[in-house]
């Protein structure tokens, strides 16, 4: 199971308000994921839809990024991130990175994990559909995104170390570290942009983490 560096926030009860529809202009700024879970004590295979809604740009009221849990379309709870919601048979864990959701999984009592399915109209849903229809092409994109992130990290990190070593307090203590990589500004910008694009693509698949943010 992925480890989170920060403790989970305490969720607050919801007011039962309905789940807002997904709009096309929310493609890049809203994550909407759902999982159907069986109803406790029922023998008729009944299930309920548990949906997590995250506005990655933050709420309009205060700018805070929150996860909201809807059950069959009604708001049951909300929480700051990272969030953990207790649900039948386990819990739903939600965490975010600078490139989208880092984690949105149902964790069963036996420890097994299942990622929640993205809304088909969302960027995550469209990326998942591409993987279903053209898996080879999808894997190639995944490999390229990893290469972009790794390249960005390898190129930018030594230059960042040099820049930090030039701070007078650090320079007086350990001296100035000269980066073995010296590139023109335009090339650095292109590599940084590639790392951002690679991290964004990984974020669509719940794979972005600290290394993507460091590389960009």
Descriptive report:
This protein is of the alpha+beta class. It folds into two domains: 12-118, no CATH class; 134-215, no CATH class. The protein is 35% helix and 28% strand. The chain contains five helices and ten strands, in the order ββββββββββααααα. It has helices at 123-133, 135-165, 168-174, 185-204, 210-215, and strands at 12-13, 30-38, 47-55, 66-71, 74-80, 83-87, 90-97, 100-108, 113-115, 117-118. The strands form two sheets. The chain has a six-stranded antiparallel beta sheet with strand order 1-5-4-3-2-10. Strands 6-7-8-9 form a four-stranded antiparallel beta sheet. Strand 7 (90-97) and strand 8 form a beta hairpin. Helix 1 (123-133) crosses helix 2 (135-165) and helix 2 (135-165) packs across helix 4 (185-204). The protein is elongated, with a radius of gyration of 21 Å.
Helix and strand topology:
Layout: E1 12-13, E2 30-38, E3 47-55, E4 66-71, E5 74-80, E6 83-87, E7 90-97, E8 100-108, E9 113-115, E10 117-118, H1 123-133, H2 135-165, H3 168-174, H4 185-204, H5 210-215
Helix pairs in contact: 1-2, 2-4
């Amino acid at each position: 199971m992925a480890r989170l560096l920060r403790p989970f926030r305490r969720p607050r009860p919801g007011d039962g308000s309905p789940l807002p529809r997904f709009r096309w202009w929310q493609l890049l700024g809203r994550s909407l994921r759902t999982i159907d879970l069986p109803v406790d004590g029922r023998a008729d295979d009944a299930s309920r839809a548990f949906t997590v809604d995250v506005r990655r740009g933050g709420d309009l009221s205060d700018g805070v990024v929150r996860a909201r849990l809807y059950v069959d379309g009604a708001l049951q709870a909300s929480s700051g991130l990272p969030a953990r919601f207790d649900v039948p048979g386990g819990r739903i864990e939600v965490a975010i990175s600078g490139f989208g959701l880092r984690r949105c999984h149902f964790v069963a009592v036996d420890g097994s994990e299942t990622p929640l399915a993205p809304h088909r109209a969302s960027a995550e849903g469209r990326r998942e559909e591409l993987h279903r229809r053209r898996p080879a092409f999808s894997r190639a994109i995944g490999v390229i995104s990893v290469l972009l992130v790794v390249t960005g990290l390898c190129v930018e990190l030594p230059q960042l170390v040099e820049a930090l070593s030039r701070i007078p307090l650090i320079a007086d203590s350990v001296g100035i570290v000269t980066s073995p990589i010296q590139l023109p500004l335009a090339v650095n910008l292109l590599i940084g942009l590639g790392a951002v694009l690679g991290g964004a693509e990984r974020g669509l698949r719940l794979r972005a983490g600290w290394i993507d943010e460091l590389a960009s």
